[in-house]
Amino acid sequence: MKLSDARLLSFDCYGTLIDWEFGITETVSRLAAPHGVHPTEADILALFASHETHVQDANPTWTYPVILAETWRRMATSMGLPDPLSDTDQCELDARAFASSVPDWPAFADSHEALLDLQRRCKLVILSNVDNQS
Fold this sequence. Notes:
Blueprint (H helix, E strand, L loop, with lengths): L7 E5 L7 H13 L8 H18 L5 H16 L8 H12 L11 H11 L1 E5 L7
Parallel strand pairs: 1-2
Helix pairs in contact: 1-2, 2-3, 3-4
């Protein structure tokens, strides 16, 4: 099938339009730096992939912000950041900051122009597996 034959295109938002990897690594780096921890991008993404998968699998009804907050708590422990038991306030502030960072994750540089171009050709349906509130 040729693109010119398509009447409708559907695609995922995160990873296609939104650079979630950059958003996550920038947020984790910003939250970890005051604690003297400077993980690499590869370390951050590996920790995120591992912990987020476990949190989602164990809690399929949780909303994505709640999943992200718990993912942060587990990542923070893995990175040696303030222990949730000894510094609950800081850990929870960081967990909330991480969970609310999604709107700050940047679009890829070409997303806007590509959407405008595609929109001229067919209807667009952007999908994501996040909850409606998020």
